[in-house]
């Protein structure tokens, strides 16, 4: 199981730069970059809330659950 962050897609749709989004959300560019690149281990709900507010989207537009293909095939057998 993996949760993928589609922040780059939402930023492109809104034509928003990393620096601008970081300022509006109130986090550092470095932390936003970690989140955008899928390297974050956790996301605060307050940060997710602010991202959704600024990007005018729902959490499901940013976060995507991916089932592990290897796990699915192993349990299917």
TrEMBL record:
Matching SMART domains: HTH_XRE
InterPro entries recorded: Cro/C1-type_HTH, Lambda_DNA-bd_dom_sf
Domain HTH cro/C1-type as annotated: residue spans: 7-62
Superkingdom of the source species: Bacteria
GO terms, molecular function: DNA binding
CDD domains assigned: HTH_XRE
Gene3D superfamilies the record matches: lambda repressor-like DNA-binding domains
Signal peptide region: none
Protein name per its UniProtKB record: Transcriptional regulator
